[in-house]
Amino acid sequence: MDLRIEEKTEAGKITATYVGSLASDDKNERQLVGRLDVIPLTYGTGVGVGDASASPTTALLLSILQESTGRIATILFADRLGTALEPECKMYRLAADVFNDAAMILDCLSPALPRGPRVLLLSSSSVLRALCGVAAGSSKASLSAHFAKWGNLGELNAVSGQVAA
């Protein structure tokens, strides 16, 4: 005998389906032998993950959009604020951390949105990550140049690279 259990929301939408079979040695004693499958909701999934209508082309286009917006943001941010980064390197180091944290928060919030706004949110997080890279890299270079004594900037960067690894 097969058993089918459906979990539904208050609105009546099916969230999961459990399919199993009942085995009985005795009419009074029946137990659920195994759960065959769980069919999850498409709500809360990434772009294309868990969606039967998604294609590899869509995933590729999303990746291209994210990379392109990030690179354009890198170029524009470095062009606009390139000269202001060195004198205010501590402020931009803090801004880099804020940009990175904001990008992570946007990535975590993205599954809760429908497909259209989700793409915009993921592109925005890519822009924030690019801004983080420019601000963090330039502030590190400025601080390294400040602490380098006797022209040993290369040695300082090599040592800090080894310590970070």
Structural class: alpha+beta
Distance, first to last CA: 59 Å
Shape: elongated
| Main β-sheet description | 3 strands, antiparallel
Number of helices: 4
Number of strands: 3
Strand order of the largest sheet: 1-2-3
Helix content: 55-70%
Mean pLDDT: 75
Strand content bin: 15-25%
Work out the oligomeric state of the chains in this entry: single chain
Q: What are the secondary-structure elements, in order, as H or E?
A: EEEHHHH
**Regions with little confidence, pLDDT below 50 for 5+ residues:** 26-46
Whole-number radius of gyration?
Answer: 26 Å
Provide the descriptors you would attach to this structure in a database record.
165 residues; alpha+beta; 3-stranded antiparallel beta sheet; 3 strands; 18% strand
Q: Topology, please?
A:
Layout: E1 2-8, E2 14-26, E3 29-38, H1 56-81, H2 89-109, H3 115-147, H4 153-164
Antiparallel strand pairs: 1-2, 2-3
Helix pairs in contact: 1-3, 2-3
Characterize the structure shown.
This protein has 165 residues and is an alpha+beta fold. It has four helices and three strands; from the N terminus they run βββαααα. Strands 1-2-3 form a three-stranded antiparallel beta sheet, with no helix packed on it. β1 and β2 (14-26) form a beta hairpin. α1 (56-81) crosses α3 and α2 (89-109) runs antiparallel to α3 (115-147). The longest helix is centred in the C-terminal third of the chain and has 33 residues, at 115-147. The protein starts with a strand and ends with a helix. 12% of the residues are buried. Residues 26-46 have low confidence and may be disordered.
